[in-house]
Amino acid sequence: MCKVKRKSCQTPRKAAPHQIRAFGERSRKAIPKASTKLFKESVYIPPEIIQPDDLYRLLANRSEKKYDDMLPLLTRLFFAIASPDAFSQLSEACMTVRQEQASPSVTTLNEVLPPMQILDHLDAKSSVSSTLRRFHLTRLLDRRINLGNDYKNTRSRRTTKQRKHDSKQLNGLLDRGDIRNGDERSARIDTKALTDIMAESYPHLKQPRRDKSAFTDAKYRDRLSKLQNRLSCARNWHALQQKCSPGILALVPCGGEFQIQIDRVERLPSSIFSVFLEVLFEKRGSFLVKVSQSVSRHIQNIVYRKDLTSKYAFETVDKMLLKQEPMDSQQLIRFCALE
């Protein structure tokens, strides 16, 4: 009796998690139509710079799928930072600071030109306020970080002394749970740093006691909540500044051609913003570092009204010509020099 060979049927192996993720990355959608229309009709991206569709896919491949709805904003922000439009806004902002005492006024309600001039002036003032806000937010976060480091260093010195004690005594402390874990220590350092900043900012407000409730407690907690919110808003600007120098904060346009909503940028989770910064400096880092360093030398003195005589070259360039300058051009770097 002949035996019939049975065909070997192998059960297909399940795809590994990284293989499933890779397929998901390849199947991501392209840049949404609204953003595509923006770049086709309003903004020209030179061929030597990564194109919006390619950038969108790159960001999608490096980030989790839950952040997909944030990618259009990040794509626009990528091209908006230190763009000709950003330089145009900064030019108007610097001019507004110098002309602070000579704001336009309305002569009659029926005329069109004066109100338009006032609105232009207010737009420029808004840009100045936004830039100043970013500078002060990063200063606030720097203060918080420095206080935290001071407390950590103090604790570290105490820990070094503790290690000189008998090991049995330390083991006893561990068994009783008297030594707090890292998360608890970090939380205590955060609380101390916030308390110090509150005392510096609002010396007339006293920290609420746990066992009592006073009329001023609500005001203290309101100010504390505002402080925490501002520190949260500072996080992404601080990360951007750390990549190069403070001048980069003045080169983020509000609204404008790229329709950048500053409050949305501040609310972006740090994880996706870190991916964005990685891609941004991978693709445009050399240019951004150069213009940021050049702008940093004088911008804070100008917007703080400490030096109103210094003037950047880009302030004297015709606005239309400035906007027509190609992105990341050497000319934009030269425009950052003083006249």
Protein model, in words:
The protein is an all-alpha fold and 339 residues long. The protein is built from 14 helices and no strands. The chain has helices at residues 17-26, 33-41, 52-62, 71-80, 84-98, 113-162, 167-176, 182-201, 216-243, 262-267, 270-296, 299-303, 319-324, 330-335. Helix 5 packs across helix 6 (113-162) and helix 6 packs across helix 8. It starts with 16 loop residues before the first helix and ends with a helix. Residues 1-27, 106-110 and 170-180 have low confidence and may be disordered.
Secondary structure layout plus pairing:
Elements: H1 17-26, H2 33-41, H3 52-62, H4 71-80, H5 84-98, H6 113-162, H7 167-176, H8 182-201, H9 216-243, H10 262-267, H11 270-296, H12 299-303, H13 319-324, H14 330-335
Helix pairs in contact: 3-4, 5-6, 6-8, 6-9, 9-11
Give a quick summary of the entry.
Helices cover 63% and strands 0% of the residues. The chain is an all-alpha fold.
State the main characteristics:
339 residues, mainly alpha, 14 helices, globular
